[in-house]
Amino acid sequence: MAARRAARGVLRGVLSSLLHREAVPALNYSCHGVSRSKLFYEFSSARGMAGLAQPAQEREPWRQAMEKVRNIGISAHIDSGKTTLTERVLFYTGRIHEIHEVRGKDGVGAKMDSMDLEREKGITIQSAATHCTWGDYQVNIIDTPGHVDFTIEVERALRVLDGAVLVLCSVGGVQSQSITVDRQMRRYNVPRVAFINKLDRSGADPWKVIDQLKKKLKLNCAAVQYPIGLETELQGLVDLVQMKAFISKGAHGENVVEEEIAPEMLQIATEKRRELIEIVSEVDEELAEKFLSDEPISVDELEAAIRRATISLQFVPVFMGSAFKNKGVQLLLDGVSNFLPCPLEVSNHALDQNKNEEKVNLSGSPNAPLVALAFKLEEGRFGQLTYLRLYDGTIRRGDYIVNSTTGRKVKVPRLVRMHADDMEDIQQAGAGEIVAVFGVECASGDTFTDGSVKYTMTSMNVPEPVMSLAIAPSSKDVGQQFSKALNRFQKEDPTFRVSLDPDSGETIISGMGELHLDIYVERIKREYKVDAIVGKPQVNFRETITQRAEFDYLHRKQSGGQGQYGRVVGYVEPIEEGDLSGKKFEFKNMMIGQAIPSNFIPSIEKGFIEAANSGSLIGHPVENLRVVLTDGASHQVDSSDLAFKLAALYAFRDCYQKARPVILEPIMLVEMKAPMEFQGPVIGDINRRKGIIVGSEQDGDDAVITAHVPLNNMFGYSTGLRSMTQGKGEFTMEYHQHAAVPQDVQAQLVKEFQNKRGSA
């Protein structure tokens, strides 16, 4: 540490002498062929690394403006208070002038829950965007759903945001969806602050929640605040960075009064501040030097260290409060401004399609060529509404923009900034902003440019659907509206799929769970006035093979004129679970020589892919399959693409049974919470549903049970849980993995499939 400190001192001295000299104009001279602008850029970077601010006149005006922009998402487990928190943020920033509750008795509901269904059910279904101003900071906010069935809304919001607020309940702590949201934040490298909400509730314990953040989410975190009272006694918060007390006063907590810390709280606040400094110094060298030297640490130094550690994803500052009781929200806004990054501090890159998808770092400059990602679509009152995150360049109303995915050039007829379901027309928007455009047809995930570059942004992670329903309109008269609704929802939501059952001819909709599909059925009825007949829910099974099997198939057909001839030889084998490629299907051409001309190989691969789309056990797709082609034969006249495609198709069907296929079913991670007195019946019911208990702990007077349960056995569970716990139990469920079904279940499923096919 001493050697490092000495080295840093020398570096700081050199930088100081270089950067603070008045002879900076001397940089006009070239130095070993390096241009002045290049030297200036490197000196600016060195200044930043040395912890020295760049003089205001050295920074372009757009850069100064961009430093005051924050793009954040608010994410959490269901019922943690995200929408209530966003409502308070909008009130305190002056965007709205009245506070309405999520389940408001006045019938208005929270601003961000603009759908009737959201207000009725008291849950967020669609992510909603808004913007507000806090001091001289411009904050763009996306409020996301907490229910796992709408996880794509969280996924696409985090894909385009620079920072996030992870909201946690002070009683519930880290729950199942908190873990999912944390995983999504890690996937997109999103810096976050945590906000422990509901400190006014009985049983509130923020320190227990912080401990869970460390153990369950493996986060390096510490409180930056200390509550003044808890539960009904909650009055305000002590800021551990500034060492000041802040009391919320006024009818809606709009007046935050700064006071000195009460003498009886000074010792514990000092201890917590030291703990904060110690944890941050573990990941920040500058603070570590001062901490180890026992030098006094100023407010600015601690604030800067927390900001550096947060942006580098090495630390999570933990804020506290109660959104419902109007306490701590303004201090959280200060934390968002102080600790979360501006668009320029986040590394974004695109793929250059003209250079074999070479990575290109985006500067974030409004003067660069336009690069924007369409991350969310909605059918608005005036046509398709496309939400865009601008990474580079400027977009203006009336501009022509190019869809990099399709190559189509389109005009921007209307440009708006969103405030939930309200729109504010704007003439232009620059890099770092989140806006929406009307009249631009595209798909979710498309990239738009000004045409001077051909860049595409990396795609989002889209989870596979786990449940299906057969659905049909109640009468043929509304068939057109029915199709229109399904097409629209499929375009808006990548996890909502529509297909046709080839055997029964039924329309099948697939999604992330019962609630997900129920919401869409209800929306078809409300928004398109179509009554739909819904069949029994179906589980999205998969098939796979368990051993290697050889194939040697000759497809030969002669019917006058040119015939069909194609022979394929090889084997199929399962892809091992630990395989790093993560592919569901893999085709390998291991042939030596030209027994089959190379131009027929793609047709053989197509044939195997088509065959794997429908396994012979129950007609579901085959996964974790590798097909290896080792030999074959062709005919000079009769061989064709069709012949080899059919040869591959029949070869797969011929060897499939020899590979000992099994059926895979979706296994759900289910977390149940119920009073301790009902623990026995709940566990007994899970066992009856063939679930495996993987965790059980006590949370106050409640038992929290975690289990892996087959989705096929979870239908109607909400009713069953309520009845066995006198309405006091609750549960959450999310997809965990696909696993092989027991032999008796497989035999039953195969029999049902054969009967259905026989009667069709």
From TrEMBL:
Residues 67-345 form the Tr-type G domain. It comes from Marchantia polymorpha subsp. ruderalis. It comes from the Eukaryota. Belongs to the GTP-binding elongation factor family. EF-G/EF-2 subfamily. The keyword Nucleotide-binding applies. Keywords: Elongation factor, GTP-binding, Mitochondrion, Nucleotide-binding, Protein biosynthesis. This is Elongation factor G, mitochondrial. It is found in: Mitochondrion. One of its GO terms (cellular component) is mitochondrion.
